[in-house]
Amino acid sequence: MNFTFLKRFLILSAFSMLLVWTSSCKKDILNDDPSLKLTFSNDSVIFDTVFTSLGSATHRLMVYNPSTSKIIINSIALADGSSSDFSINVDGEPGVSVKDIELTGGDSLFIFLRVTIDPNNENNPFVVEDDLQFFTNGNNQKVKLVAWGQNAHYILADTYNTGFPPYKVVADSLQTVYWTDEKPYVIYGYAVVDSYGKLIIDPGTRVYFHDKSGLLAYSDAVLKVEGTLDNPVYFRGDRLEAEYSDLPGQWDRIWLMESQPGEDHEIRNAIIENGFIGIQAESFLHVTTNKLILENVTIRNMNGMGIFSRIYNILGGNTVVANCGGYCMAFTGGGNYNFIQTTLANYWQYGIRKTPALFLNNFLLDSVENPIPISMHFDMGNSIVYGYNDDEFETEMVEGADSSYFFDHALLKTTRNVGNATLFKSVIINEDPLFFNTEANDYRLDTLSPAIDKGSETISSQIPNDILGNPRGILPDLGAYEFEPGQGEK
After folding, report:
1. For residues 391 and 358, is the Cβ–Cβ distance under 8 A?
2. For residues 220 and 198, is the Cβ–Cβ distance under 8 A?
3. What is the 3-state secondary structure (H, E, C) of 343-407?
4. Structure pTM?
5. Taking a C-beta distance cutoff of 8 angstroms, is the pair 143, 77 a contact?
6. CATH number, span 39-148
7. Residues 253, 234: Cα–Cα separation, whole Å
8. Distance between first and last Cα of the chain
9. Are 393 and 413 in contact (CB under 8 A)?
């Protein structure tokens, strides 16, 4: 026998066994380093089943120990505890929490998650959420749990592109899609109408947005909101609790880019409330040649802006924009705007507001912050612009582009001299319009309002009924609402 070979073999075998033993011991050494964190198969678990009866579903979450040594997970627990709609099962142990789970180096742990919801319970929120919390070496890590709480059409973002929020295409190119009032629509992320697609929203439809969610009509897409006086379309956040009924900032915005040739965006008989920006309308890939038409639209309780535009054309009648943390209307980068029988009322109560209710400018900035003048024309008739600020109308105009504004029969809160007949005609300044109840978002005119009978019949003839369907007659009022005797009893 070759004793030299045998000696070498025994040495190598002993060395290999030592490595295995050392590695095994290292895995058994407890690592209490606070910088050590767990990793997970998902940063959120979404139960995207649309329940049709008493609903339950189970998902699996993998938890990994990325270190080479043992750790102890001090606790795994649902943030809402026993009141949670979710439950967990860790190594066969069901409940809402478990403690002192050992996980050796490089090892993983299965957690089974279950949710049980009655989707026919209208007291449920549309989106049910909780956090699964992991406490390890002083670290608190969370995995978001999300499930649907009521029967609805759920639109869940499935596309992630740099520069855009997460989204799902709901109307593809050359496709016309109808949203009906059969069940509400709940949007988690952004719902997108793609180029040359069309989304038509029927009367009575309710659209609810989750946090940071919105609706986008991309370049050359079309949005038609076809509410009626009796069955308006609602856009609002998905929190149904009473304390959220007037709370701003619950969702993002309705974002409209230029519509396809020959088509206008149209929003009729709609209520848009409690978001960040009510409507953002902008020319994106090319300057729009079409319009956004607003008729009988109320936008309120936005912590940013009610309507924000860049190089756009907007035609509005019976439009109410109220209570915004920034501007009620900000029309920038030029464009063409014509509003009649409009009420802008900014009584923002969630902080100090330094911006006016109405702002106009006729330029955009280039890459080095130099203004690029763009033509701007703005007309407003039979309207009210009022709020807490001393000046609720401001402009920022530069030379180099044909630009103008004109108020014809209006009540304005302003420090401007309204004696210039080329800019102002029959304008009342700084008189309280005496809205019926601003705290209740009721912008009808009270009995002694100075806006009663101060409008032009020539203007009101273009939209002879007010936002509630009341006839205006030969002595129309300013704003979107016509005063009706006894209206406080309705």
Report:
1. no
2. no
3. EEEECCCCCCCCCCCEEEECEEECCCCCEEECCEEEEEEEEEEEECCCCCEEEECCCCCCEEEEE
4. 0.88
5. no
6. 2.60.40.10
7. 13
8. 110
9. yes
Tell me: the pLDDT tens digits for 148-167?
A: 888 899 999 999 988 888 99
DSSP sequence for 114-125 = EEEE-TT-TTS-
Residue 26 DSSP symbol: H
The ranges assigned to domains in the chain are 39-148, 153-489
Q: Using DSSP, state whether 447 is helix, strand or coil.
A: coil
Return the structure tokens found at 325: 């943390």
Residue recorded with tokens 């915004």: 324
CA neighbor of 274 nearest in space, from 330, 236, 234, 321:
236
Inter-residue contact 66 to 41 (CB < 8 Å): no
Exposure b/e, 7-19, CB count within 10 A at least 16 = b: eeeeeeeeeeeee
Show the tokens assigned to 385: 């612009």
Report residue 53: phi and psi, to 5°: -150, -165
Distance CA 221, CA 289 (A): 13
Nearest to 78 by CA among 113, 46, 102, 103: 113
Amino acid at 157: A
What local confidence, expressed as pLDDT, does residue 21 receive? 45
423-428 LR contacts (CB < 8 Å, sep 24+): 426/454, 426/456, 428/454, 428/478
What is the identity of the amino acid at 348?
A: W
Helix (H) or strand (E) holding 290: none
Candidates 382, 397, 407, 399; CA nearest to 481 is 382
State CA 368 to chain mean position distance: 31
DSSP state of 245: T
- Rounded Cα distance between 232 and 201, Å, is 10
Q: How far apart are CA 446 and CA 441, in angstroms?
A: 13
Of the CA atoms within 13 Å of residue 117, those in its CB half-sphere come to 30
| pLDDT tens digits along 322-351 | 999 999 999 999 999 999 999 999 999 999
